[in-house]
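Example complex used in Figure S2.
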Amino acid sequence: MKKVKLIGTLTLLSGVALTLAACGNSNSNNTSHPNFKESTPKKTIKDGGNVSVAVVADTPFTGIFNDELSTNNTDSEVMQYGDESLFATNNTYKYVKGGAADIKINKDAKTATITINPKVKWSDGQPLVAKDYEYAYEIIANKATHSQRYTSSLANLEGLEEYHDGKSNTISGIEMPDGENGRTVVLHFKEMKPGMTQSGNGYIWEAAAPYHYLKDVPFDKLISSNKIRKNPLFYGPYKVSKVVRGQSVSWVPNEHYYKGKPHLKKITASVITPASVAQSIKSNKFDVTQVSNSQWPNIKGAKGVNFIANIPLAYSYLGFKVGKWDAAKGENVMNKDAKMNNRSLRQAIAYGMNVDQVYKRYSSGLSFRIPTLIPKQFGDYFDKNVKGYTYNIKKGNELLDKAGYKKKGTYRVQPNGKPLTIRLAAMSGSKVQEPIIQNYIQQWKKMGLNVKLTGGRLMEMNSFYDKVQNDSKDVDMFIGAWSLSSEPSPQDLYGAKAPFNYSRFVTKENTDLLNDIDSQKAFNNSYRVKKFHQWQAYMDKEAYVVPVANSYNIYAINNKLTGYSLEPSKSMGGGFPNWYYVGYAK
Amino acid sequence: MWKTVLRRILIMIPQLLILSLLVFILAKMMPGDPFTGMINPNSDPKEIARLRQEYGLNDPVWVQYTRWLGNMFHGDLGQSYIQKVPVTSLIWDRAVNTFWLSLMTVVLTYVIAIPLGVTAGRHQDEWQDHGVQIFNYITFAVPPFVFYILGIWLFGFTLGWFPISGSVSADVNPGTLAYFWSRIYHLILPSILCALISTTTIVQYLRTGIVDNKVEDYVRTARSKGVPENVVFNKHILRNSLLPIAAFFGNTITGLLSGSMVIESVFSYPGMGKLFLDSIGQRDYTTLTALILLFGVLTLVGNLLSDIIMSIIDPRIRIK
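Predicted assembly (906 residues):
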């Protein structure tokens, strides 16, 4: 379920990149950090009332109401009212008891045992059973469905690959001790990973699909069938009452919900364009609206609403190209002689970015510099001793001088005497994106670094990723963004075999640290924490990838509503609140 | 004449083929593909590569093109990569929405433009004429999106008279009177705004036509026979002055289906224009090519219709 939101990552990312307008950081003085809460104020709730929610999106939603097949962020947003994740988590995303199902990891037996809460029923009154969980795996792994969710991490489940390749009709690693209609599922893995106790780990699927309802639909027709597009079933607090294709979805209470009857009479989620957000909030058109950060100065004075916010698991970063992806071998190959393969140069460039100043100026404090590649929200895993790179031209100059980048006229040359031109790829976005990037270029110029934009201007997202993914020679460094899974292992983004390691750096130290983080030893949490800290310190020192910023994710909520909380422990998954707790105050 | 019509229709076939080829190649030249936006650490690149292969995105462009062409002749325009439904069903859905919006807009445009044009022409250089001219300058000069956003701000948000987005309210059920009214209600603001800003050409043609025709010999003859002034205007002058407008009426009819990207985007109205724009952004090739082909057909048919209409209302013109 956590994964649901992630799939739309790039879109979200570009969103992050765009809205990362400007930020003030806690150690720069007098920043006007708005003081956001993660929940609406607590009040006594009454039953009844309708809630209208604005879903801010450029395009109509696709309307694939099924976690296994959906790939679209807007879809997750419009189905959050019924689409509850199987497992509950605490505030640092560890699995805890009390959700629709409980999960227990057994390291020695290489299993995960899932016990479904017997009270959980689909919105048509049928119980949620073991087969429903297995069926979700079948949808993902069966090639006929065209699901994009099948990954090598999921294939760590015994027999999933064989099923995927059509060599077997069943998934041998899924055991149902009480039968298909029982409440217990035992998953058998090839290898146990320490991240398996953390939601969003990618090894364990966190949703179920209603087998009794969908079994008559052939796998290849599933994605376009009305049972998924128009009349989907959920076991969360609300159920679909009506879908207006691409525009709106209405939800009414699911009387079979396992926690009890939800408070609201009706929830309507409708799509609006980003251009209407500020006016919608100011004129109280909707009860819940996601704020566009770039319009904040215009929105913040709105009356009748509470602004609540969380910091999403995401960041923007500056990456340096130091190698290439070898598609044949499926691994990154570092080029020792790459222009950017000089630690002093990379560090100097990082010191040249006045991130704090820029975001303070351009984002009203809604975006802020981040020091390391592991977000603070991960609790112990975040290393607070890593300070990152703060603006320091003097230090940058010293580093460059020492490393032999001599000045010839305005600009420095490479230690081998050749001229040095650095091409920066960056995405276009909100109107502040251009001045921010130009500002960095000016700062670098002050240090004598000749930085030019790839293609002479900011690039549209598709072109940007086209160049960055294919290791275009027009890119020496790039500013991208990632939205993260709630399991913090950096293996997928920075591993030697990770295609998403766009910097293409491969060092023994990095590989060892990443392997340690995911090793059997790391089932011992303090060991894992230690390795996470070492990795962050290493990445900070080497600066192959420099973390830049993150921003608040803000919602404007009608101030008569209560119980709306973005805390992970009160979430139904996917970063959305559990709507069971939401209602109007008495 | 029917021979000519038939010939024109036959010429359309190679025209459309060339159009589709161009569109197909240009679409493929855009950076990225429908899967670019799906990439993230939780999707497996190998799996994405497999899907690319399965959808034939790795084949040479000409292979993809001939495959697409072959399917099209069987009436199969393919499946939308993004919406995961057949393109025909997707377009049908949007075409209905666009049709109603455009129809209302066109009707309102004529209802507003014709009286304005007639008044201006009839009272040439008087205050009525000046008033209409000023109106015309404004509607001509203001960029449509500014006008729409102003309209939505004033009538949608500030006064709260009209809905600000969508084509129908979520609370009503299809088939009921309330549903029908909700659809109309959602159309009022966009269609009025769109109509107001589209009147320029019609007003201008009509005014010029009337001013020119007023001094023609046949008008003098009619007046000297003692025909009442109103009849002179409505029967003799107006009819002749409408000719230039009729010249693009064929395109107006087919234009009912092509929609407007600007108005549909501002109002999040799910119509053809919005679909076209989205399919470019999301690299939804199947939808994109199908739409451009459809727009091409509409333009060519529109031109033909215009010629036919002209020949019907003005017997002096014959299609050769």
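The mean pLDDT of chain B is 84. The radius of gyration of chain B is 24 Å.
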